[in-house]
Amino acid sequence: MASLRHPLVAVAVALSLTLPWIGIWASGNGFGAGPTVAISGIAVLGASFLLAWAAETAEADVPRSFAIAVLAVLAVAPEYAVDALYAFEAGAQAGTTRGAEAGNLAIANMTGANRILIGLGWSGIALFTLHRARRVADTSVREREGWFTNAVTLHQGISVEIAFLGIATLWAFFVPFMGGIDIVDTIVLVGLYVAYIVVVIRAGAETVDEHVGVPAYLQDFARRFRIPIVIGLFAYSGATILVAVEPFAHGLEDLGVAFGLPEFFMIQWIAPLASESPELIVVAVLVMKSRSTAGFNALISSKLNQWTLLIGTLAIVYSIGYGGYGVLAFDFKQDLEIWITAAQSLFALAILVNLEISGREALVLLFLFLSQVILEFLVLRILSVANPEALSHQILIGYTVVYVVLAAIMFYCRRAAVAELASIGQATARRAVYGKAKPEAE
Questions:
Q1: What pTM was computed for the model?
Q2: 297-345, pLDDT tens digit by residue?
Q3: How many CA atoms does the CB half-sphere of 117 hold within 13 Å?
């Protein structure tokens, strides 16, 4: 019985969940939408656990922020694959109706994924953490009197991620004014992420929590064995997610279309929901181990690389498909989608600027996200209204204003926390540059 609890048993179970889809993918055999969704979805689940264990094990050898950042990049690899597919198609068919449609779908998929990550991911994980803390002690949960006033507190070390995400969010507001995603966006946004990685590496390793289960077992291995194992887990789980989530998403699209749902809706919401699932599973595992700060670090890192690498590389992929330098253009509807996504991100940062998120704040995030999606769907597909597209645009503008106004109020009320967060970020940056809190006097 004890052998069944051995960490390698857990690894074997997670690995076994991925093998059926790997076999199907390698053989090239096709199945209907239903079996495809089931088998590839189970593979994503297994790979997500392998990915979480690899990231936690890697903390023995690299700074935790860097390990979580790598985890975030691998976890959103399927999102890159789906978006790259449409960006490449937009470039390859530039000047045609299908090319323009593909460009719009690339933006829709990107904005949908980002809003799901915050609207469902950040809020859902916060609520899950608070609910679990009612039964299991969690030192990251601060208890207060009142309805949904308990809050998940975050470590100061996450300030760097919040600061870089803030810069990327502000830049995103200006993207629609530039006539599309171009080389300037690539330089700025990819440069931001490179700077972030450099800072978290050079700032030095952080205190590592004591691990249990699979990560604790693997960390006991000698370094010469541990590092190849971690690299192997990262590579295998990342590759599995890469080949499984896109068919999973397309299978969901086919199922949705069979029920009369439009392609645009499926690409913006259903496909990203599938591709975001690995991140949410990974974070849920961390929360189950009472590592809420590490979980939110993963979510924020995921949001940061989606706002930087994902947007920045779209212009490159488009140009490859185009056969030369090109700008990924999109219509006014996608302008509005980018603005509301940036506004939601700004509001979410206003919540986290004091390094905590309460149950009430999580509920507001969740309500604003769900109500906008449901209201727009009702207008476009259910209700009989005059000029539904124009009304849809007004809904997007209205929610954008609500997000921005709420963010402005919260930033003002928490201006002391903003200053403190900026100070922590500057100290970390100085440590990354000089190797200490501040440079020595000449």
A1: 0.84
A2: 778 878 888 889 889 999 999 999 999 999 999 999 999 999 999 999 9
A3: 33
Instruction: Please name which of 64, 162, 139 lies closest in space to residue 420, comparing C-alpha atoms.
Output: 162
Tokens coding 168 = 């990327």
Residue 81: which of 232, 197, 315, 241 has the closest Cα?
A: 241
Measure CA 134 to chain center: 27
How many residues belong to the chain? 442
What order do you get walking across the sheet with 141-142 strand by strand? 141-142, 151-153, 356-358
What pLDDT, on the 0 to 100 scale, is given for residue 207? 43
370-401 confidence digits (pLDDT tens): 999 999 989 888 888 888 889 999 999 999 99
Q: Exposure of 146 by Cβ count < 10 A (0-12 exposed, 13-18 middle, 19+ buried)?
A: exposed
Are 317 and 84 in contact by the 8 Å Cβ rule? The answer is: yes
More confident: 5 or 194: 194
> Would you give the DSSP letter of residue 353?
T
Sign of the alpha-carbon torsion through 424, 428, 433, 436: positive
Tell how many helices (H) and how many strands (E) occur in the chain.
Answer: 19, 3
Q: Residue written as tokens 């996450």?
A: 158
Residues 6+ positions from 64 with CB-CB distance below 8 Å = 157, 205, 206, 208, 294, 297
CB 215 within 8 A of CB 57: yes
Residue 93 has phi, psi (to 5 degrees) of: -115, 30
Q: What is the DSSP letter of 347?
A: H
- Phi/psi for 181 (5° steps) reads -90, 120
Burial class of residue 261 (count of CB atoms within 10 Å of its CB; 0-12, 13-18, 19+)? middle
Within 104-229, strands assigned E span 141-142, 151-153
The answer to whether the beta carbons of residues 54 and 234 sit under 8 Å apart is yes
- 63, 206 contact by CB (below 8 A): yes
Report the greatest alpha carbon distance in the chain.
72
Angle at 431 between CA 426 and CA 433, to 5 degrees: 95
pLDDT digits (tens, 9 = 90+) for 108-145: 999 999 999 999 999 999 999 898 888 887 778 888 88
Under CATH, which number does the domain 2-434 receive? Answer: 1.20.1420.30
> b/e per residue, 53-88, with b = 16+ CB within 10 A?
bbbbbbbbebbbbbbbbbbbbbbbbbbbbbbbbbbb
Q: Return d(Cα 46, Cα 19) in angstroms, integer.
A: 9
The rounded radius of gyration (Å) of the Cα atoms in the chain is 22
